[in-house]
Every structure is written in structure tokens, then in C-alpha cells.
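Annual report, structural modelling task.

Input specification for the nicotinamide-adenine-dinucleotide complex:
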Amino acid sequence: MRFDNRVAIVTGAGRGIGFGIAERFLEAGASVAAVDVQAGRIQDAAEQLGSKGPSLAIAADVSVEEQVEAAVEETVKRFGRLDVLVNNAGIEVLGSASEISVEGWDRQLDVNLRGAFLCSKYAVEKMRGRGGAIVNIASVHAFASYPGVVAYDASKAGMLGMTRAMALDHAKDAIRVNAICPGYIDTPMLDAWLKTMPDPHEAMRGILKCHPLGRIGTPRDIAEAVLFLASEAASFITGATLVVDGGMTIQGH
Ligand SMILES: NC(=O)c1ccc[n+]([C@@H]2O[C@H](COP(=O)([O-])OP(=O)(O)OC[C@H]3O[C@@H](n4cnc5c(N)ncnc54)[C@H](O)[C@@H]3O)[C@@H](O)[C@H]2O)c1
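The model returned the following structure:
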């Protein structure tokens, strides 16, 4: 899976899964625009990524249209083309429908769903003619729910619908659109969620037990799946959802 002379945008690349995806694309020969809303974080990340290959740090909020448009333009200006978009930037706002604030709901949908839509909208314009690949990082929460994450689950289920719709609309442009549903992955987002549990160590033991493969995932596990879906090896795959969860969601109870 080589990506020499190819250009990828990875959102939420300042840490966690996004950083792992950006790093893996660079190792495979791509040039990478690493986007994150946290300016300091993306600068630090870019310094580490810089040793792996041509990378560009862009501070942008994926939920703000002008910033997304500018990020896509800057990428094409620097690298000359755009082949891959990975919609990875995401947040998790906790709460049931009665607990979550309306502002919390809106922010959740703005970042996870509107952000992926905006990035895709501007990326598609640059991919038309030559073709390209979009990979959306959804979650097992798109189809298997847990207490107290109503807005997050809605955003991730929405991502799968958007993946199928965009795959259909842009097949004629040779743009493939697919989604990945990770299980629990070892990142700062997971750490933040564990800290909300009454006993984080007990919660971690519970999480480990629900993965038949006996471990939680790593950003690298997700990055490998992303590279596959973005590569020529997946040239007949579009509108698909790839579950990467160590077997978590195949269990009967
Ligand atoms: N960690 C898990 O267990 C897990 C499981 C399933 C799906 N996911 C999904 O994977 C993606 C990455 O998760 P992670 O665990 O690496 O999270 P993380 O919180 O560790 O990293 C997310 C990055 O996205 C950035 N970001 C947040 N809002 C943004 C915005 N508006 N614009 C641009 N960047 C923004 C953050 O600054 C951060 O650097 C998310 O979409 C998440 O929902 C994570």
C-alpha cells in the first residue's frame, strides 16, 4: 500500500487516531496535511511528523466552513493535488437526551457530522477528474449503543448514512467513500471517558473483557484499515463500513 506522489488530508491529526493515520500515510510515501483545531497541538504533532515525510500543519476547526475551505486550498497550493481525505476529527459529549444541553448536542453534531460534511464538500471539488478516496472514522456506536451517549451515537450513525449517500453520488467521479467503525482505541479520548467512570481501573478491566481478541485497539490498528480503504487494493469498495473492534460487536450478549 504505497502512496508515493499522493496527497492526504487527515483531520484531528494532533493526537490519538488521527496522528497515527497521518504518520502511517507519511511512512507509505504520501504528503500529508495534518489538520487540528488546537494550534499548539498540531504544531507539536507536525514537528514529530516532519521527520517521516512532507507534512503541513493546519490549525482549523472542521465545523467552520471558511476554515475548512482555506485548509483544503492551502493543501492543494502546497502539494498540488488532493487524493485522500480522512474525516477523523471528533469529540464526545456525554449525556442522555434529558441530561445533555442543547448546546452540547449542537456542538457534538457540528464537529462530528457537519465537520465531515464540510471537509468532504470541499475535498470532492479537488478530487473530481482524477478521482480520490474519502474515509470516515465513525464508531461501533453507530450501531451498538451504550447509556449516556445519545448525541455521539447520533453523530456516528449519521456518518454512516452520509458515507453511503456520498459513495453513490460521487461514484461517477471515481471518488470512493467508506467508513471505519473502531471499537475502544487507546487514545486521550478514551482516557477522558475512563476518568468519568466511578472506578476507571474497573472500567478498563470491563473494556478489556469485551474484546474477544483480549486487548483494546491502537491508533495503528485503525491507520492500517484506513490505508487499505484509501488504496488501490480497495478500488472496488465504496459505501462500505469496516468494523475494526477486536470482535467486540460480534458477541451474542
Ligand atoms: N478512541 C476511541 O476509543 C474511539 C473509538 C471509536 C471511534 N473513535 C473516533 O475516532 C476519532 C478520533 O478519536 P481519538 O480517540 O483519537 O480522539 P482524541 O480526542 O484523542 O483526538 C481527537 C483530535 O481531534 C481534534 N479535534 C476536535 N475537534 C476538532 C475540530 N472541531 N476541528 C478539528 N480538529 C478537532 C482534537 O483537538 C484532537 O487532537 C473520533 O472521531 C472518535 O469519535 C474513537
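The pocket of nicotinamide-adenine-dinucleotide is lined by residues 11-12, 14-18, 35-38, 41, 61-63, 88-91, 111, 115, 137, 139, 182, 184-185, 187-190 (CB under 6 Å).
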